Amino acid sequence: MEEKTLIDLKENNFFVDGVCKMCKDRIENALNGIKGVKWAEWNISTKILQIKGNNELNYDEIGMALSKVGHDNWMLKADEQAYQNLEDGCKYRMKK
Question: pTM, whole model, 2 decimals?
Fold first, then answer.
């Protein structure tokens, strides 16, 4: 069976709130190990998370993983305790 390349995978774009490079790293790392996710990149200026994956992507699991690390997203508001545990510079709600 031939392995798929990134160009062959399904692409999805989602809103995820955050403000900095630390947020970017946290958001992208939150998706490590989630079944179906093959590649992810979050854009600081647009707040768009681009995910490439296969048909096993579970959007509920992705939204929950982001909430658990403190980031509001298209699906869920961040877990309040996780948000409060963010570094002060990462607290995007205060920046609005």
Answer: 0.89
